[in-house]
Amino acid sequence: NDPILSIEPEDSTLLTDGGEVDTTYVLLLKATNIPSDINRLRFEYAPGLGAPGSDDQFVLLGEASTSFDVSYPTPGLYTITASIYDELDTSASPEELASALIQVRIIGTVLDIDPPGLSDADAGQEYPFTFTARDISLSISSVLFSWTFGDGTTRTSPSSIPVVSGQAAQVANHTYTSEGAYGVGAEVRDASTNEILASRSVTVTVGPSTERNVTLDICDTW
Asked: pLDDT under 50 in the chain at which residues?
């Protein structure tokens, strides 16, 4: 039988449910069916982000294993690869005995503002803004939104909002009374821990925007 290499997360939910940003996961590399004339294996692996790694292990009864840690700072789909070689094969191009590949999805909350900015808005006109948080961790059951409209108006959700299928939303209406450029900012927090999950800002221009050149000051104090 040919050698077999597998990549197995110690936490199986990494494959079924996805992982979380800035969380350390242990990946196990298991090699089986190793020929009896090979005493040591070199494991080489690439976590999909950052530098690749390697490790040498003795073969016992045709098997060998090792492990390594991974952590991802941003959401996305990451491809993890690994290969095994005879550790004593020092040739320029050693023969690859087996390889393996898995993909893991790292979930991180994303906050959207709709509309994603306004131009030539009318003073005195009420505009609705929808703040939508998506890809919220399965461990979070409810969230709170906070937002500012850039004109001194700041608000927080009056009560926690349940997370349904990884999403939650808050709608807020606002009327600008004066022309100008405003920064609309929002953030979403875990209602239980008050941890900030995500933030976003957009620009609203009230009145004619032609040749307007201003610096926005989006408050970061909620």
From this structure: 212, 214, 217, 219-222
Please choose, from the candidates 43, 98, 51, 42, the residue with its C-alpha nearest in 3D space to the C-alpha of residue 70: 51
Q: What burial letters (b/e) apply to 64-73, b meaning 16+ CB within 10 Å?
A: bbbebebebe
Residues 6+ apart with CB under 8 A from 86: 38, 40, 41, 42, 94, 95, 97
Q: Are strands 19-20 and 96-107 parallel, antiparallel or unpaired?
A: parallel
Q: Which helix (H) or strand (E) holds 179?
A: none
Closest listed residue to residue 207, CA positions, set 181, 184, 179, 178: 179
User: Is residue 188 within 8 Å of 194, Cβ to Cβ?
Assistant: no
How far apart are the C-alpha atoms of 148 and 172, rounded to whole Å?
10
Give 6's contacts (C-beta < 8 A, 6+ positions apart): 29, 30, 100
User: What per-residue confidence (pLDDT) applies to 220?
Assistant: 47
pLDDT value, residue 18: 86
